[in-house]
């Protein structure tokens, strides 16, 4: 499957990188659906989910998703992109049969996009990297839940058909499935951000008396944080998989440039400063691949792997950023232009160091574990 995906991305998707059907935030839905139609014909649409609804193992998923990432458009074309991939994983684990039929199946078929409404405005002390600060509320009114609050950096909300909304009841955090658009879910603005690969961009949202039928609650009231961990640990790793593919492609482009371009009497690659940068890329790409595969193996044991996914997210995001940065440097002026995807890879991977938990938050979490383990050892 990975070989078929790689062939499809290289032969069919990469030519779309010059397609004009995109805005500042990402490709248009017209472009996404056209590519998905071709992926469906090629048998590589939603390749991580099998015909019976079961998933590839995380280890197998890593092999496939790295290949979808060889183009920034690849995950969109193959339906392995965030936030849809993580949302499909969560619904597959937690949703009821009725909810799967109504909300999950259109996502798996690639007919709809989704959004995950968790993050809130930091300027209002809302939930960001600390979801316990959630201020969005939900209260039961008859057989409906009424939700009010604000969300921010909600990827793909504009144009999405399925939403997963997190809010806090008296029992604790809750998740709800909603059909989009809904007049009570109002897009205040779509932010201008450094990245440009996500259809719909990243929106700021007002939830004003949103009424959701009780049977559209995902799981049980108060269990939302538990479900969030079911989603977030694999989703962090999936990001690593996809961006590893993009960094690999950027390295391929920089390598080709360094071998073709001559300066001071010889190819750039023969200048130690350039050759060593490419060598460092090769080392860090392999280290990142091994880290991804190790964390995937832990997830495949049935563990939530929160510690392992934090280590992988922090290490891989920073390593891939260094790879992308070196690719820009090797290519000089061409590296900061839009003539290749190297410039976009740099921007996208820089953003990756922030979303799904900034590197520093993951390191802080790991430091707390080190302290806990030390105290336990002393006892």
UniProtKB/TrEMBL annotation:
Q: Which residues form the Acyl-CoA oxidase/dehydrogenase middle domain?
A: 116-192
- Domain Acyl-CoA dehydrogenase/oxidase C-terminal positions: 222-369
Q: Which UniProt keywords apply?
A: FAD, Flavoprotein, Oxidoreductase
Q: What InterPro entries does the database record attribute to this sequence? A: Acyl-CoA_dehydrogenase, Acyl-CoA_Oxase/DH_mid-dom, Acyl-CoA_Oxase/DH_mid-dom_sf, AcylCo_DH-like_C, AcylCo_DH/oxidase_C, AcylCoA_DH/ox_N, AcylCoA_DH/ox_N_sf, AcylCoA_DH/oxidase_NM_dom_sf
Citing just one GO molecular function, the answer is: acyl-CoA dehydrogenase activity
The record's GO CC annotations read: cytoplasm
Q: Which cofactor does it need?
A: FAD
Q: Which family does the UniProt entry place this protein in?
A: Belongs to the acyl-CoA dehydrogenase family.
Quaternary form?
A: Homodimer.
Task: Cite the PANTHER family for this sequence.
Answer: ACYL-COA DEHYDROGENASE FAMILY MEMBER 11 (PTHR48083:SF13), MEDIUM-CHAIN SPECIFIC ACYL-COA DEHYDROGENASE, MITOCHONDRIAL-RELATED (PTHR48083)
What's the name of the protein? Acyl-CoA dehydrogenase
Organism expressing this protein natively: Sphingobium lactosutens DS20
């Amino acid at each position: 499957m990975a070989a078929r995906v790689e062939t499809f991305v290289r032969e069919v998707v990469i030519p779309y990188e010059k397609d004009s059907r995109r805005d500042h935030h990402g490709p248009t839905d017209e472009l996404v659906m056209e590519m998905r139609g071709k992926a469906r014909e090629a048998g590589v649409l939603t390749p991580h989910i099998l015909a019976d609804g079961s998933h590839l193992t995380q280890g197998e998923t890593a092999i496939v998703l790295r290949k979808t990432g060889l183009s920034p458009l690849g995950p969109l074309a193959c339906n392995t992109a965030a936030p849809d991939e993580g949302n499909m994983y969560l619904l597959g684990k937690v949703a009821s049969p009725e909810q799967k039929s109504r909300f999950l199946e259109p996502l798996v078929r690639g007919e709809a996009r989704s959004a995950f409404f968790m993050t809130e405005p930091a300027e209002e002390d809302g939930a960001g990297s600390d979801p316990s600060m959630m201020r969005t509320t939900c209260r039961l009114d008859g057989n409906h839940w009424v939700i009010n609050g604000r969300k921010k950096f909600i990827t793909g909300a504009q144009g999405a058909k399925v939403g997963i909304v997190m809010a806090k009841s008296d029992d604790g955090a809750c998740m709800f499935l909603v059909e989009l658009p809904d007049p009570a879910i109002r897009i205040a603005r779509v932010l201008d951000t450094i990245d440009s690969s996500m259809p719909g961009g990243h929106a700021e949202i007002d939830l004003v008396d949103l009424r959701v039928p009780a049977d559209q609650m995902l799981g049980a009231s108060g269990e939302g944080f538990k479900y969030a961990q079911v989603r977030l640990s694999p989703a962090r790793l999936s990001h690593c998989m996809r961006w590893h593919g993009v960094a690999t492609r950027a390295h391929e482009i920089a390598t080709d440039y360094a071998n073709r371009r001559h300066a001071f009497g010889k190819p750039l690659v023969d200048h130690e400063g350039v050759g060593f940068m490419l060598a460092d890329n090769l080392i860090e790409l392999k280290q990142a691949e091994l880290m991804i595969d190790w964390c995937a193996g832990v997830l495949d044991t049935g563990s939530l792997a929160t510690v392992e996914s934090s280590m992988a997210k922090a290490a891989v995001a920073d390593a891939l950023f260094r790879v992308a940065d070196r690719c820009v440097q090797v290519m000089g002026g061409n590296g900061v232009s839009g003539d290749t995807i190297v410039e976009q890879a740099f921007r996208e991977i820089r953003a990756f160091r922030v979303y799904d938990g900034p590197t520093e938050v993951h390191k802080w979490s790991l430091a707390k574990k080190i302290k806990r383990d030390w105290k336990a050892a002393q006892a």
